[in-house]
Amino acid sequence: xxxxxxxxxxxxxxxxxxxxxxxxxxxxxxxxxxxxxxxxxxxxxxxxxxxxxxxxxxxxxxxxxxxxxxxxxxxxxxxxxxxxxxxxxxxxxxxxxxxxxxxxxxxxxxxxxxxxxxxxxxxxxxxxxxxxxxxxxxxxxxxxxxxxxxxxxxxxxxxxxxxxxxxxxxxxxxxxxxxxxxx
Length: 183
Prior knowledge:
The protein is α+β, with helices and mostly antiparallel strands. 28% of the residues lie in helices and 33% in strands. The radius of gyration is 17 Å and the shape is globular.
């Protein structure tokens, strides 16, 4: 199974992002837009996971104790190199701490932490066909000059998701939910 750990978005933020995406989206933009029900903030990508590692992982994540971090979407941007349009997320000290706790818990089961700095975001669209660049992505950058305001929220849980890949895009299913303490 292909797993990752993430924070679900609040319903209000999903509505706000949906309205923006609907306004920006076009049939000929060359982008594959992700479904709002798949939007999340990744804490750690785990990849292909054996049943044995899964059996180790869930108890370690259940042991994790943290308050829910405040979450603030911080504008729209693109990762040009990989052809991704995203909503950035402010890295609060609480969010950075939760991400560190998650990677420490998963390391006990043999998962390697990411070597790049943590850059939380919500993937909204990708260039179709795995292409690196598209006119659609450049056009999006021109349309998103203004920084929209988003409602902040406090994460109440993090989730272990299983990803199912297909040519039409990824689908995610919840495997386990882990509550976070109120601040």
